[in-house]
Specification:
alpha/beta, 8-stranded mixed β-sheet, 35% helix, binds zinc ion
């Protein structure tokens, strides 16, 4: 592995920064302390910053030479509403909040790159270090874009990275095209007519209608879309009734839809609506259909992905880069950035959890799990990747 010496020398300090952020997790758009840590470090290293973009977002800017090209590197900063069960010294100090997705590590890796790039300016152009709030459902990426990220910080491409448990430590993975799914949610209320449970003929049973709708929806995945395309339709909540002898007025179906393309999403949403409305009509019931699109599919651009893969190979070697990593139905708001700018999002293997100190919980070291912890061995690897990406993308002529 070819890591940059000045970064490995700085590793224990990066680890301190990472663990300090881990101990002080902050939720969507509340990342004031984290943003202060980021801003203070960048300022200490002489890097000009913009604050308040996307409420708590911070952008650091490092320019060198006369080049006019720019590159964006993005790290997310927010934590999750999870009660941590690890008991090591850097475990969360805030009840009910935890860095269970490793964004503490993402911040530290980008800070490591920032420090190196500010001292060794072996590039020509401008690097934008994007510290983003609210990835976990808040759409912080979109909020920063709405606040002028790409107009104030003109960049030619933007790159993202996420630690990935279950992939060997220090192994990179990326794939051109769709790599993460669109995330959408629905809430469908079937309105019938309540009645005595012993006199069902005097009412309209919304539970029977909801069951018909729920079962018919599954045919969208198996019968309506092409078998080559991917889609998930999961009903995760069904609510109706409050007594054994009463047919209720309403039944509610709630859940999520995931797809890799907007075309498939359009199809699924339209079929869900048609089935819900027509099934309700067949039983003289009515339906309120609500479908909300949250994050779009994350689609890596082919050229930038090939570029990033070469950089990864130059650091960890060919065997440690999976160039066709399996896409996941999870979602990621970096997808918004890739809709406007070419770029690539990569996974960096977090291992199986063997890195965890004593005092970790007994659960698996998976993302969003209360026993999770970011693997500090990744700090110099991720930071080196960012630096090498910049030096390759903005070569010093
Ligand atoms: Zn997450
Ligand atoms: Zn995450």
């Amino acid at each position: 592995m070819k890591l940059l010496d000045p970064i490995t020398e700085f590793q224990s300090e990066l680890q301190q920064i990472r663990r300090d952020i881990h101990a002080h997790p902050e939720l969507c758009f509340e990342e004031q302390r984290t943003a202060n840590v980021v801003a203070q470090k960048l300022t200490e290293w002489g890097i000009p910053i913009i604050r308040g973009m996307g409420i708590t977002g911070v952008v650091g800017m490092i320019s060198n030479g006369a080049g006019t090209r720019g590159i964006g590197l993005r790290a997310d900063m927010d934590a999750l509403p999870v009660q941590e069960i690890n008991s090591f010294p850097h475990a969360s100090k805030h009840a009910g909040k935890m860095h269970a997705c490793g964004h503490d590590g993402h911040v530290a890796m980008l800070l490591g790159a920032a420090r190196y790039l500010s001292k060794h300016r072996n590039f020509d152009g401008t690097v934008y270090l994007i510290f983003q709030p609210a990835e976990e459902g808040g759409g912080g990426a979109k909020k920063m874009m709405d606040d002028g990220l790409f107009s104030q910080c003109p960049m030619d491409a933007v790159f993202g990275m996420h630690n990935w448990p279950g992939i060997a430590t220090g192994t990179f993975g990326a794939t051109a095209g769709p790599m993460m799914a669109s995330s959408n949610e629905f809430e469908v209320v079937v309105r019938g007519k309540g009645a005595h449970a012993a006199q069902p003929h005097k009412g309209i049973d919304p539970i029977m209608v909801a069951i018909q709708i729920a079962q018919s929806w599954q045919t969208i995945v198996t019968r309506s879309k092409s078998p080559i395309d991917s889609a998930v339709l999961s009903i995760t909540q069904i609510h109706a009734g409050s007594a054994t002898n009463v047919i209720p007025d309403e039944a509610c179906l709630i859940g999520t839809v995931r797809t890799f393309t907007t075309d498939v999403l359009d199809l699924v949403e339209q079929r869900m609506r048609t089935i819900a409305e027509h099934t309700a009509q067949a039983f003289d019931a009515q339906v309120d259909f609500r479908f909300t699109r949250n994050y779009p599919p994350l689609v890596n651009h082919a050229k930038e992905t090939a570029f990033a893969i070469e950089v990864m190979k130059s650091i960890v070697g060919e065997n440690m880069v999976n160039t066709h990593v399996e896409p996941t139905m999870g979602a990621e708001d970096f997808a918004f950035m890739l809709q406007e700018k070419p770029g690539c999002y990569v996974f960096l293997g977090n291992g199986e959890g063997g890195h965890r100190d004593c005092g970790h919980g007994i659960g698996p070291c998976n993302l969003h799990n209360p026993s999770y912890d970011f693997n500090d061995q990744l700090l110099p690897i991720g930071a080196t990747y960012w630096v090498r990406l910049v030096e390759a993308y903005l070569p010093n002529t």
